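Appendix C. Worked example: Response regulator transcription factor
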Amino acid sequence: MKILIVEDNDDLREIIVRSLEKERYVAETAACYADARTKAFVYEYDCILLDIMLPDGNGLELLRELHAAGRRVNVIILSAKDSIEDKVKGLELGADDYLPKPFHLAELHARIKSVLRRQMRGGEQAIRIANVTIHPDTFGVDVGGKPLELSRKEYDIMLYLVNRQGRLIEKQPLAEAVWGDDIDQADNFDFIYAQMKNLRKRLKAAGAGIEIKTVYGFGYKLVET
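Step 2, the predicted output written as structure tokens:
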């Protein structure tokens, strides 16, 4: 899961980054409106943590732009402006939650999980496809009720594809989601192949009822077998 942190306070931004990385999120950052806008329109994120008061603009305006462009992304507003007006504006513009500063990191983590669970899993704790169950809160995977051991990258790839079951996923957005935005500067995406090969091998050996198909020249698609 990849999260964009839009926050101009260097210390708070770093604290949030470190806490999210401990929770195994891929954390990207923007310290101003201009950078946040560029990243939000160039890359894909599972969630944006958005401060309202930025040195060169207002976070609510970014929400307006995303909404106008049809860019659907989970947004949690983080702001010291704890007013009813700001909350209402943010929610009307498409924000999924509002957390006033100061806040506890444990609450932030809980709200992120809640937003992602509602959007991707209809509120369910686990994801079930065929005989495969993924437990995002514990990073576990079961096949037919038996635990399946995966490396971190294998798990991250699988979770990304499972949340987009049946959709054609190109290599670049997959790589950015698992390795971070800077991976778009790589000469090629050969590093994905080894991870994908191992993941497929583990799923097949475990008798999983899902398969990751290669769509040559484009990317991958996860389907039931």
